[in-house]
Amino acid sequence: MLKTPRTKLTRVPQRGSHDSETLYAILDEALIGHVGFVTPTGHPAVIPTLIARDGDELLIHGSNASRTVRALRAGQEACVEVTHIDGLVLARSAFHHSMNYRSAILYGTLQPAEDKERALEVFTNKLVPGRWEHVRWPNPQELKATEVLSLPITEGSAKVRTGEPIDDEPDYALDTWAGVIPITTVRGDPIPDPRLPDAMDVPEHVRSLTDR
Fold first, then answer.
1. How many angstroms separate the CA atoms of 71 and 147, rounded?
2. Is 194 part of a structural domain of the chain?
3. Does residue 105 contact residue 156 with C-beta atoms inside 8 Å?
4. What is the spatial distance between Cα 175 and Cα 173, in angstroms, rounded to a whole number?
5. Measuring CA to CA, which residue among 44, 36, 41, 206 is closest to residue 130?
6. Where is the composition biased (Basic and acidic residues) (predicted)?
7. Number of folded domains that form the chain
């Protein structure tokens, strides 16, 4: 991972990392990334969008008509950020309350993906592994209306906080509860589309996603 002045971690740098494996793991778990860029009119914008990693590239997609796609396709530099919140960290003092988290930031210029249909397969299987082989693939009109852009994962950093509260030493004597409240995302049971045939079972590739 390329280290640059803008990826240098200055605030609590011991929580930072430029390790590719750490960065990849954070990106792979994320469904949504926030894409920041400056519009052609000079205004800042941050757009949430579905992301997927394909090797050492990060993919985003959208309508060919969207301002985000048009600006990024024209070469506007971007910053992409994702964050996972793993817990609320309750300290003995208000000042030291925090969160356990995993975050990643990437910088660079995006280019149209070389193989748009394969990129859409990557997106589909990111949502549900194995889903692509069970659905209708995009037709020429749908492919024409869609753009997939690729960002090389070469300049970026990750930052992670784990563990218990860190209080000032005198505050450990306070009669105040402290600890961590974990936060998790849970996938529930599939809810069938009302227009499905009554006899259709939930396929295994969908059922395997549930956490119950």
1. 12
2. yes
3. yes
4. 7
5. 206
6. 190-212
7. 1
Which one-letter amino acid corresponds to residue 20?
S
C-alpha span between 153 and 2 (Å, rounded): 9
φ and ψ at 111, to 5 degrees? Answer: -130, 155
Residue 212 lies inside a defined structural domain of this protein: no
Calpha distance 22→4 (Å, rounded): 18
DSSP string, 69-118: HHHHHTT--EEEEEEEEEEEEE-SSSTT-EEEEEEEEEEE--EE-S-HHH
Tokens representing 103? 């975050």
Provide the pLDDT for residue 9.
78
Total Cβ atoms within 10 A of residue 71: 21
Residue ranges making up the domain that contains 76 = 5-207
SS3 letters across 22-54: HHHHHHHHCCEEEEEEECCCCCEEEEEEEEEEE
**51-60: per-residue pLDDT in tens?**
999 999 999 9
pLDDT digits (tens, 9 = 90+) for 172-193: 999 999 999 999 999 999 999 9
Of 46-50, 87-91, 186-190, the poorest mean pLDDT is in 186-190
Assign residue 180 the CATH number of its domain: 2.30.110.10
